[in-house]
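Field: COMPLEX_INPUT
Field: COMPONENT_COUNT = two
Field: RESIDUE_TOTAL = 652
Field: MODE = joint
Values follow.
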Amino acid sequence: MFLNSSRFIKSLSLLLITLFSVAACTRSSAVLNNPSTNTRRITDDAGREVFLPAKVDRVISLAPNLTEIVFAVGAGSSLAGDTTYCDYPVQAKNIEKVGDTQHPNLERIIALKPQVVLVSTASQLEVFTEQLRSHNIAVFVTDPHDLEGVFRSIEQVGQILGYVEQATAVVSSLRARAMAVDNALKQSPRIRTFYQLSAEPLYTAGHDSFVTDLLKRAGADSVTANVPGAWPKYSAEAALAARPDAIILPTGGSMGEGNGTVAKALASSPAAKTGRVYKINDDHLVRPGPRAVDGLEEMARVLHPEVFK
Amino acid sequence: MTSSRLSNQNRVTLRRTIITLLFLVAALVIVVGAASLLGSERLPVSNSLCALTTLGARQCGLTSDHFDILFQIRLPRILLAAAVGGSLATAGAGYQALLRNPLAEPYLLGVSNGAAVGTMLALLFFGSLEWSRPLMAFAGALVATFAVYRLARGRVGATPERLILAGVIVTTFLSSIIVFVTTMMDATRIRSFTFWLLGDLSGANTGLLPVPIAVAVVGAIILTLNARSLNLLMLGERDAFDLGVEVSRVRVTIFLIASLLVGSSVAASGSVGYVGLVVPHLTRLSVGSDNRISIPSATLGGALFVIVADTIARTVIAPRELPVGAITALIGAPLFIYLLKRV
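Field: COMPLEX_OUTPUT
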């Protein structure tokens, strides 16, 4: 008994010593790298100051919209890892996968030795920011609430990866397309629209969602534009009482054919009765990336067919 | 002499039962009426009451939108709330009487989670067949019930502690299956699932609404018909057997009916917690522990409780909504702690 416990204590102390020395090693390497190389400073959408090395050429994206942005600015070769949701452009599928957006695998992220990890919202950030920082990996958060916010994300990613000119060019061409829609719709009446993110339970786009801005730019008057939050669960009777003249169903993209029909509660809405129910590729509407402008143009076209012939 | 006193007692019980139930039915009618008038949209009160009293036969000056809100959205949801609350409370009362355990409850015993796993599997494999959901939920509830019962029965019988422990084990095991299945799903489905798992009544507007209502009514009647046997079972299984109760038949009946009740309500609304615990306790406190009164009272009380909870869930941050399970747990968890201290 006594012998057993002493052996136990021995092995336990051996284990602890090993752990501590490993920890000490990583700590010392972090200290060596950190202050001298991470000289650039950039503020992200969560309001954090992120310190970056002068040249970033290994980045991991934890959201499909960020992967699309990295490729759009021409920095696809810097992408060391992305998620199982990242399917556009096709090259994104061949990038090493680090899990999905909700459940990224921390070990694999660290093993891929990126300098920066791009994150789409602040969720779960607390958990892994500290751990990544101890490995000298910066975490950059994007959280756009409107199309200008999406443009800012593109410019920031360009800045981080050293593709500033390309990013500026991408943004100015996207902005020109958005302006063209704006100009075309100047004289058009706004259409009361309900955005049905999912039917059961009924979810919509609220005040903080970039989709609400896209709807406004597409000549729609979103009936849920002032509802707090980005993706609120919404009362069916409030949706019906708002009498939407059009309903947008994001569906048919990489998420499949779900959400293809109007919620039963809205069957007697003016939109459903007059057949003004429009399916829009959800990849263009749930990903705040370059293709959000495609989503904007598609919505403008179906809501105002008289303008876009 | 003895028989006349017994029948006299029975008559008193019968009268008390009828008075109690009439009172609860009246309360239910009032609460359904009040809940129909409350919601994110304000409906004109007198016109709505007029339309409600004619059961929608006349519009009573309501606009067609208001009429649709009242009869297509609100009333089905209130009826579903009543069915779910009635089912869960009846099942809870049944489990508590049969297992002689004041803490027995569909949610704590893992039966709700069993039904949830069944519903998820139905959605995964027979997504388009609406009917598969209540059936698979029933099967899941039944499996979970028997698993808990088997685990809890030690050499000394199922003590309250053993039963709850078994329930916790089965609940966490089934939760891990739920987590595993949701991880396999795509992102949009996860959103609706997490909401549904917390208990959500917004899907009331379906053709399946009559199912939970019918199950609640039939289940409550069958359990009440077994109430006398359950009363005798309170004395212990051996004594009940000596007094002529077919113990194993009663046990199978209660397990089957309770699983059916839990299965149909979980398939319709997810796991609404604590109803099966709180309501039977409150009704026993107010009408006594005679199952002939307390079981049907629990049915009606459960309906009242969930209607009120769901009215809070859909009005408190309107036009946004909360899952009803969050409200029932908010009320039920503190009460559970209170009851734990009394046991």
